[in-house]
Every structure is written in C-alpha cells, then in structure tokens.
Amino acid sequence: MSSKSDILAALGSGALKPHPLPQVEIAPRLDDLVGQFEASVKAVGGTLIRDNALAALQQQVASLVADGQQVISQVADVRGNRATPEDPHALRDINYAVIQGELAVAENGAVWVTEQGAGIRIAPFICENLLLVVRAEQLVANMHEALKRVNLENVGYGTFISGPSKTADIEQALVIGAHGACTLTVYLL
Amino acid sequence: MATTTTANHAEKAEIFCRDESRVDWHSKALWLLRQKRDRAASSLPEWEQLRELGSQYKLHTLSHLGQYLEQFEANCLKQGIQVHWAKDGAEHNRIVHEILAKHQVKKLVKSKSMLTEECHLNPYLEQHGIEVIDTDLGERIIQLNKQPPSHIVVPAIHLKKEEVGELFHEKIGTEKGASDPTYLTRAARQHLREQFLSADAAMTGVNMAIADQGAIVVCTNEGNADMGGNLPGLTLHSMGIDKMVPNMEAASVLLRTLARNAIGQPITTYSSFYHGPKPGGEMHIIIVDNGRTKALQDELLAESLKCIRCGGCINTCPVYRRSGGYSYNYFIPGPIGIAVGAQQDDTNTTAWACTLCGSCTYVCPTKVPLDKIIAYQRRLKAEQGKLPYGKERYMPIVGKVMGSATVFNCAMSVARFSLRHLPHAMLKPFSGAWGKYRELPKAPKTSFDTWYKQNRSK
Ligand code: SF4
C-alpha cells in the first residue's frame, strides 16, 4: 500500500466523533476604518500617507530617481528606473519597490499584495524600502472580511504585509529590518 | 523522538537553575510575551469567540481529515503543485532528498519548521552532502551554536545578547565585544542575504493548508520564508496532516489569533499564500503523518492536534519559565511538548514537569485541553508501570490511603503529631524533592475535618 492509502486508512478509524463545520458570525468593527488602519500601520512600524497620497508618492519617487536610487515601480502613473526582470536575483540591488495592493485591513495594518500586483514575487521582499499603494474603498475591518474578498483563482502567490520586516530573536529586543524590507510606507488613495 | 541523554527533567532543570539571575531573566522575558499577548487578546471583544471558533474548526477538520486531505491534494494538483505523502520522518527525509538530488541542489535555505526538527531533516541532508541554512534569525543563531531550539517561536530565547555577539564574532565576523541587537541583526541580514541569493532551493514549514483552495499559508515576521521561497525556482513545503483547515474562513480565524497569542502582534508581518509554482519553477508539498494518525485514535490525545504552534502555553508555563527549554527530553518543550511528546520520554519524568495549574489551557487559541492531556499522559505512564523513580513505590499506597476515609484520617493525625513533636531533621528526608528548598509546615492541632464539624456543620 502507498503511504497515502495507509494514512487515509488510519484516519478512517479516528476516535473523534464528527463535529459540524462552524461559521464565523462576528460583527466587524466599522467605526472610522481609516483611523483604525492608520493606528494599526503605525503600531506595526509602518507609515501611512493619506493626504494627496498619489501626488506625494510621485514626488517622492521622482526625487529618489533623481538621487540615483534604484526604484522598481509596478504602479501606473509612478515611474521608476528599473524594469521587471525574469530572474528574481537581478533585483538584488533594488532600493525601493512601488507596488499596488488590492486590499487593506484596518485591524492589523496589513495590505494584500498578489504576484500580479508585485510584477514578480520577490519584489516586496528584496527591496530595502517598500512603498505600497492601496485605494481607500478597498479598506476592510478585519481578516474575516479580507479573506471573503481574496480570490486565489489565477493567483499563484499572494501575501498580507503588515509593516516592515522585524525580529526580536536577540533577547526579545525589537529590531526593524530583518530579511524583508526595512521600511514600509502605505499610500492610501 | 527521545533525545539520547538519560538525565531526567528535574536534573536538567537543576543545571539550568544553577545561574539564578539567568533564570530570573529567562522567566521575565517569557512573561513579557505573555503580557503582550494579554493586551492583544483583550483588545478584541470577540477574543473568546475566536478561541471557540478555532477549536471548532480544528475539531471539525480533524474529524473529517481524510476527506479534507484528499480535497487539498486534488486542488494542489490542479494548481501544478506536486504532492507527496510520508508515513514517518524517515520517509519524509527520503522524499525531500530525492527531490533535491534530482535538481542537484547543493545549498538549501530553510525557514522555521518544527516538523523538519521532528524528522531530523538537517543532519540527514548534511550526511548526503547538502548544506542546509536555517534562515530565521533565532534558528540561525542556534544552528551556528550547534544547539536545538529551546522554544518553538523564539528558539534562541535562552541566549543573552553577549553570547550571540561572541558567536557572531567567531562565525560571521562581527566586531569583538559587540552585542547591540540592532547591529547583530543587521550583520545577520547581510550574511543571510548572501545565502538566499546563492541557494539552489528553498524549504518552508506550513502554518495552514487550505483544503478548498489547494493553498498553504506561511507566517513569518522576518520575511525569511518569502525571501527563500521566491528566489530559487524549486520550493518545498513540509506539513503535518494536522495543519489542514477547510476554507478561507477558518484561516481567517487562526490568522487573527496566531500572532496575537504568540507575541502580541495583531498579525505576523507576512502571511503568505503559496498557491502554485512560480513561472518555470517547481513547488512540492510533503504531507507527513509521523504518529499523528495514532494520536487521533484516542479521543483526548486527538485534541493535541488542534495546536497551531503559537507558543502561548510555553510562555505562560511557570515550570518552563524556570526550567528552560532543554529540560524536557523532547524537541518541543512546555505544556504542548508534554502533551505530544511525553510518551517518547524514556526517563518518564517530563509528564510531571507541570503543576497542573491550567494557565496553558486558559491561553490556548484553539482550546487544547493541555492540563487534562498532561494528567492523562501521567495515567498512561502509570498504566505502563513507568512512574518516575520514587513515585512508583509510593503512588499506589497514596491511592489506597486517599481512597479510604478512616485510613486517611488516621494517617493525617499521625502526620500532625509528627510535625508538631518530632525534630524536623528527622522528618525532612520523607518530604523528598518537595522539601529540598522548603521548610516543613507548622501542623495545626486538629484536622480540617474536626474543625469543620465543630465550627461549621451546625
Ligand atoms: S497548545 Fe495552544 S497555546 Fe500551546 S502552542 Fe499549541 S496552540 Fe499555542
């Protein structure tokens, strides 16, 4: 017998009686979603820009490019100076990545990014600094609401990103900037 | 898997307790995590509802596990994900090695996976000439220090920053004497960045496997799973059969409780859904049993498989905080380590490394009845005639004495008499380990029973 059929056979005689499939019936907290989101982004070590966000982003990226920083942008109307490569290793020297998020979550400051939005899966991780763009109408209260809207069809990879990468593995001291981006700015349009 | 050493829990704890200031520091560091967890939990009015939902989703899935595993596999195959099944650790390691050998992999970057620890994958691959780099900072520290993890979420919690500084100086060339966590973390980032960029394949653990999608979810704060998983073309993901959840709604419940309960964050920095290979790449999932179907044959032990490895029960445990992660004779320490590993401890002592205070059960986000399971593990040991040294002789007598009111009352009056009239030096040896650091109590003149009859039962 194969290991698969062995495992399935052993599961046939499990001792747990059948339990019904539960359902989430939790009313989402809907007061001041933007305010909640802003507080959450801040709490997880990120920065939220909500006033004139697109213009602020364009200006920021233009000055980065003028400075000679390596910027890859996947957002229409925001021009970087690097193209999306086929080999992810080619992005090893990227300073800034500008990426369109598809959802934002008020309770934890997370933004949902798919491989389509990122252009290439490695982009949001390999950059030193991450700039995420998300539209205010895509803001939801919590993870239940978020996962109701996430559609994985045609999405081979997607990730919720909540703040810059971090670790507390040395004596529980929080250090921002572990393996992923060292800073995160969210532009709310 | 039992460790080779035969020292029992108390002996190993004693080694840890020799440095009193370190014990205090360790205990405080973990209590800080517990406090952060309490703040995060109490910020959600629906917290208790989420715990109940977590438990219900897990019980539902575990009681229909065969069906969900098959659905999961079918959906993965549709996505071009290759699925493998392993009965035990040895088969898991063989499968992993075969895949890596086929692609001539020389260097593998690996993010945190307690399962690969359980299967002893690293030494196996190293024997076959494959370099394995653990990429979680804590795991890299203990890998360089040639130690196993002492905690499932914060694996290097037993080390002080000066020790990490010394280690990094020796292994990755940081400045001598430097111990600033930010400096050391930056140095590790540089060191590991090179490893990510030069790896031939990446491997991750799995936090949740979603049956109706054929997707797996991997949660990290550092981004190491995604740095690895998104660079080389070949990625492997190992999961125990217990990682299954039915749908996205179930995942949403666990994603709300996991990081809050582990470290007090509202969610981990990255919660990544892997749902197919990258263009031109390969994605493999290895589904592992290794004793889990056996646990499912027992109604109570089955509940230990509801665990989502948040580490909350370990942080709150008064015994773990003061005995350290290396005292348990199992690769998972603390309450959950006893619940799933006690039967493999051949010193027959870790099941007793617990006060049955129940704090673990109270914090668990999926309501694993840890204290009940630990008490049950003791019973299983007793039934096998494997009580720890000492207990084996007196426990059956205790049972008889406590079972009979007359014998018990007689015994207690002898005890009161002895405590009041005999010299303590003569009695102390009878108190065993309990009396080692404690004074014997002052005995009252009468028993509670007599006192109650005189004062309250009128
Ligand atoms: S038993 Fe519960 S509290 Fe302990 S690690 Fe597992 S999920 Fe967390």
Describe the structure.
Chain B: InterPro entries: 4Fe4S_Fe-S-bd, 4Fe4S_Fe_S_CS, FTHF_cligase-like_sf, Helical_ferredxn, LUD_dom, LutB/LldF, NagB/RpiA_transferase-like. Chain B: This is Lactate utilization protein. Chain B: Keywords: 4Fe-4S, Electron transport, Iron, Iron-sulfur, Metal-binding, Repeat, Transport. Chain A: Pfam families: LUD_dom (PF02589). Chain A: This is Lactate utilization protein. The complex is a heterodimer of chains A (about 190) and B (about 450). Chain A is α/β, with parallel strands linked by helices and about 190 residues long. Chain A has a single domain, classed as NagB/RpiA/CoA transferase-like (Rossmann fold). Helices cover about 25% and strands about 20% of the residues of chain A. Chain A is built from six helices and eleven strands. Chain A has helices spanning about 5-10, 35-45, 55-65, 115-120, 125, 145-150, and strands spanning about 45-50, 70-75, 95-100, 105, 110-115, 130-135, 140, 155-160, 165, 175, 185-189. Chain A has a five-stranded parallel β-sheet. In chain A, a hairpin with a 7-residue loop joins β9 and β10 (about 175). Chain A starts with a helix and ends with a strand. The model of chain A has no long low-confidence stretch (mean pLDDT about 95). In chain B, strands 1-10-7-4-2-3 form a six-stranded parallel β-sheet, with helices on both faces. A four-stranded mixed β-sheet of chain B has the order 8-5-6-9. With about 450 residues, chain B is α/β, with parallel strands linked by helices. Chain B is built from 22 helices and ten strands. The N and C termini of chain B lie far apart (about 60 Å). In chain B, α16 (about 335-340) runs parallel beside α18 (about 370-385). Chain B is globular. In chain B, a hairpin with a 4-residue loop joins β5 and β6. Chain B folds into three domains: about 1-35 and about 310-390, Fumarate Reductase Iron-sulfur Protein, Chain B, domain 2 (Orthogonal Bundle); about 45-135 and about 200-295, 3-Layer(aba) Sandwich (Rossmann fold); about 390-455, no CATH class. Chains A and B meet through α1, α5, α6, β8 and β9 of A and α2, α3, α4, α8 and α10 of B. β8 (about 155-160) of chain A pairs antiparallel with β9 (about 270-275) of chain B. The complex binds iron/sulfur cluster.
